[in-house]
Design a protein that fits this description.
By secondary structure, this protein is of the alpha+beta class. The protein has ten helices and eleven strands.
Length: 387
């Protein structure tokens, strides 16, 4: 019998199309050859590998699911595989792609005018225009309806005041998709770098997502033209629709983190000899490795089926919540256990586990905490809103 792939025990690869496999393999090569050699240094120095952005864009990985406007028009499973391979390197790299694609390009594509699409999407696909997404505020990340940022009409313009917190790409961004309360309801606005009263301040001293730019955004009477308002959505369904797109990608990303950690620890336990035999020869180690493989396999099947439903147009937000909850918890638990198996070596960034472990502490919190996703599923089961 053929030996099983330890990172694909159920041969999920056989369920992928030729195009999906080609995309996965090409992104994996990029990650191994270009991103992996530099990521630990960037994490140590708390810098984002911005030098990789042109290559990421050239591969068609930004806004990959969008049709036209210089975008690749790939299916949802392909986008998921991109996220998986990017996060196999680092959550910060995947977060950049997620924010640019799902939280910035998607709302312009889904809610913007044709003029707005033509104005921004081609440059974003080329990596020449970087975006960020302003929804979360410091007083209540899990309660977006409680936002304080507001916009009022002033002639042909809007005046935006308020602030946003924990904004990926904030200080890199040329534009920000900002959600604000108006008299008509919550609306989305495209704020441009350099607008008077618009300021981004980078958040320092992070112990997680260190290879990613995280910022606070401040709006002090920022004058925004009506041409920069997203015209085709009003209400929370706008930003929540963006979050569903991004959360879908997040269900795939942590699979990559978990595979990176498991791969590393299989090699480590095979090579490390204690008490006269490899560490991998101990039953306690094999039980832990087996449990990691079991959980990765379950996550792979969850995300693949979710992607097929998304492409079929049948995916529902509760299904995304199940996968985000399960897969991020899976990856965080595996990263922590791998860090422990590595012993003293596990606390340095010469190994992947501690970096993934720290990053996943953010991933399990952002775009819906684990508790929020549990309550989404609970509401589906009972019909009672317990928020």
């Amino acid at each position: 019998m053929a030996k099983l792939n330890p990172f694909d025990l159920y041969d999920v690869a056989s369920l992928l199309s030729e195009e999906e496999l080609m995309i996965k393999d090409s992104v994996a090569r990029f990650v191994d050859e270009r991103a992996m050699p530099v990521i630990a240094k960037h994490f140590d120095e708390a810098t984002f590998p911005q030098e990789l952005v042109p290559e990421i864009a050239e591969m068609g990985l930004l806004g990959s699911s969008i049709e036209g406007y210089g975008c690749a028009g790939l299916n949802s499973v392909s986008y998921g595989l991109i996220c998986q391979e990017m996060e196999r390197c680092d959550s910060g790299l995947r977060s950049f792609v997620s924010v640019q694609s799902s939280l910035c390009m998607y709302p312009i594509y889904a809610y913007g005018s044709e003029e707005q699409k033509q104005r921004w999407l081609p440059g974003m696909a080329a990596g020449e225009i970087i975006g960020c997404f302003g929804l979360t505020e410091s007083h209540g990340g899990s309660d977006p309806a409680n936002m304080k940022t507001h916009a009022r009409r002033d002639g042909d313009d809007w005046i935006v005041n308020g602030s946003k917190m924990w904004i990926t790409n904030g200080n890199l961004a040329d534009i920000a998709i900002v959600w604000a309360k108006t008299e008509q309801g919550i609306m989305g606005f495209v704020l441009e770098k350099g607008m008077s009263g618009f300021e981004a301040r980078e958040i320092k001293s992070k112990m997680s997502l260190r290879a990613s730019v995280t910022s606070e955004l401040y709006f002090d009477n920022v004058r925004v033209p009506e041409a920069n308002r997203l015209p085709n959505v009003v209400g929370l369904k706008g930003p929540l629709g963006c979050l569903t797109q991004a959360r879908y990608g997040i269900t795939w990303g942590p699979i990559g983190s978990a595979i990176a950690c498991l791969s590393e620890v299989i090699d480590y336990t095979s090579d490390r000899v204690l008490f006269g035999r490899p560490l991998a020869a101990n039953q306690a180690i094999q039980l832990r490795l087996a449990d990691m493989a079991r959980r990765i396999t379950s996550a792979q099947l969850l995300s693949l089926q979710l992607g097929r439903m998304k492409d079929a147009g049948t995916m529902q937000p509760t299904q995304v919540s199940i996968a985000k909850w399960n897969n991020v918890r899976m990856a965080l638990d595996i990263a922590r256990d791998c860090r422990d198996i590595l012993g003293g070596s596990g606390i340095t960034t010469e190994y992947h586990a501690i970096r993934h472990m720290l990053n996943l502490e953010s991933v399990i919190t952002y775009e819906g905490t684990e508790t929020v996703h549990q309550l989404v599923v609970g509401r589906e089961l009972t019909g009672i809103n317990a928020f």
